[in-house]
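<context>
A single protein, sequence plus fold
<entry> Chain with its tokenised backbone below
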Amino acid sequence: MFRRHALGGVSVVALQLVLLQPATIAHAQPERELPSVTVDAPRAAPQRAVRKPAAPAAVLTTRPSKPPAASVANSSGQGAAASGRLAGASDARDRLSQAPSGQTATMIDRSRYDDRPAFTVGDILRESPGVSVKQGNGPRDLGISIRGSNARNGFGIRNVVLFDDGFPVTQPDGLSRSDLIDPHAYGAVDVIRGPSSALYGNYATGGAINFRTRPGGSIDGAEIGSEGGSFGYLSNYLTYGKKVGNFEGSLFTSDVRGDGYLGNGWFNTQTVNFLGTLKVTPDDRFTVKIINNDLVTRLPLRYTLDQYYQNPYQQGCATFASRAAGCALVGLNKNGFNAAAGVDQETALQAGLGRNDRRTIVGGRWEHDFDNNTTWRNQFVFDDRNISQPTGSTSAIGDFPSYNYMSDVTRRGEIFGLESTAYFGAFYNTLTASSDTRFVMPGGNATLGRLSGNTWSETTNYGLRAREELKLTAALTAVAGLGWERTHLRGVNAAYGYPLVGSTPPGITTADRQFDNLAPELALLYRVNSDWLLRARVATGYGTPQASNLFVLPSGAFGNNTQLQSQANLGYDVGFDWTPNRALTLSATGFYEFFRNEILTQAVTGAQNASYTFNAPRSEHKGVELAADWQFLPGWRFTAAYTYLDQVYTEYTENLASGLTLFSFNRAGNKIPGISPNELTARIGYDHDSGRLAGLGGFVEVQWKDSFYMDNGNLLKAPGYELVNLNVHYKTELVSETLKSLNVFFEVRNVFDRTYIASANNVQNAMKSGVQDVATTGTIYAGSPRAFVAGMKVAFR
């Protein structure tokens, strides 16, 4: 009744280009880029691809390709030392963004997602254990969590630091958004798990993620791609890269749009991502990074669990009068400033709710080699986030410009005859912003009423970092790190009230808080032999509140919440990596983390603000992460990423008010809401690598997410789900003057058309008739029903 599965909107531009030279298609699968199975191997300098001489137009060539090596490299071992060579200081510095020694990490290379549609970065990150994603407020806005770190946050990404080619895309207030991340742009993704503030600073309590675009030399030409399918989805993108003399650059652009599978879910977004490096002298390199994303999207209201069961895809919700059962409604003040003149109940479509955002990042990096063993790096990033977000009864409007500067020195050498890599750096970043909250009025098109509140804030972080990696023996490496950081939050919040008669001055709340945090780290890596790597680590993380958190009360109204403390976690990791041959990689990690003053966010029933932030004095997080990559027969491959999480409060008393009576509940021993205890992504596939069918393949993928609690009282659970995806693809080389390769694929997602929850934010508990219950707050988005997606990529010389 409400599902559309038409396969439509696929661009035919690339197909027309291929059909111009039908005789040049070779019936052979090109060799895939073979990712390293050496743990933490440093990234080699990109090499210019060697162009083959063109074959005559009517001649076909057949060249069988070798099966790819394992592409999900886990853990983080001894880097260059593990590969038997001493890396230069520049290589060692690159590793600190990709897979620092001693850290539990996963590298996901392009071969894992090159032959399938990639709508969001979640399609990539599910390949890593420890990572969980949930749908955010927009088509490609995701909540990305490492070891449950961001599962309690209501929107965006917190407690995980994000980088793009080593340039930070997390702003100084700790907020990241995934809207600007188009998965087609990247050649690899590095997921670094566990407390990481010694190296990455504030907000790295869960870890860090580094998205790496493809170097221009490895592209060596252009690639045009197109995907389209159910619910009006259409994605067109272009990648161009070259290495010419001392300059290497790559440019990615994309246009993505669709109707969405939820009511009022239309979207339109464009992304540009550029990376260019110029080697000015043998010792000096300049790198420029530019990212820009424009997003226009409509946005549905979040559902309660009851509404989700009634009408999961929010169909038939055009207007209040004609709405179907289970439609969510938002109350809008008729006069645009208070409820005294009456309130209209409208649906999301009727009110015109949505987002109109722009994000622009410009960065520069200068690297200077004093000698072969010492590199000095200076990096500057300007990051501007501009938002207009009528997402409910109010709209957030503001501009958030930030500046980030860092300088560091990395040196390779010896200490007492032992191989050493030493790193020392300093950093400074700041964000100054003024944001408005305005009432949304009835009448459609998100008409704005009067000012509800204004927050001026300034967030500044500065500090020092030091790190030493020492090879004690041929098999044993020790790592020690220490980070110190000072965070200064200043802010003024003005809350406006509008009586029917006369006027009242705004309520003013000020904040001036300073936080000092110290983060030590220790790790040991023991290379038993070429097959086994054992690792142990103890490390710390910390994260300060955002300035906006200081001005919202538990009721959702503006007020004084300036007592918030920074959170800190101490974590222990033990694990191993086993790689007996190129066909098999197994990795296992167990972790136990102790949190103090964990910063948690939960949704509140419709008020000026949608969420409230508080500290839980003590909590414990423990779990297991498993990864496997097994090529058990020629052409066959099995991969799996599994995460087990057990996270509980150990000290936290929650107070709930009922009229003038206050009720206290001891939450010690309760599960922390938002945490799914079991998650698994597993895939089995086959790729034919010889003969006339070379390049033809397919896979079946299973995603499992266990049920989880949504409230502190553990009274309400979001149900779990299992999804099955089916993919068929074909890759081949093209021998011509202009064309290099063709890649076509078709995928059915959610094959059995399961109805499931893609996002469920935490919800408040409330007292009802003297009994603890759950507030009726909308926090849920359903996931996509069965969808069909087809696409193609054509690479040009």
In short: The chain has a mean pLDDT of 88. The radius of gyration is 26 Å.
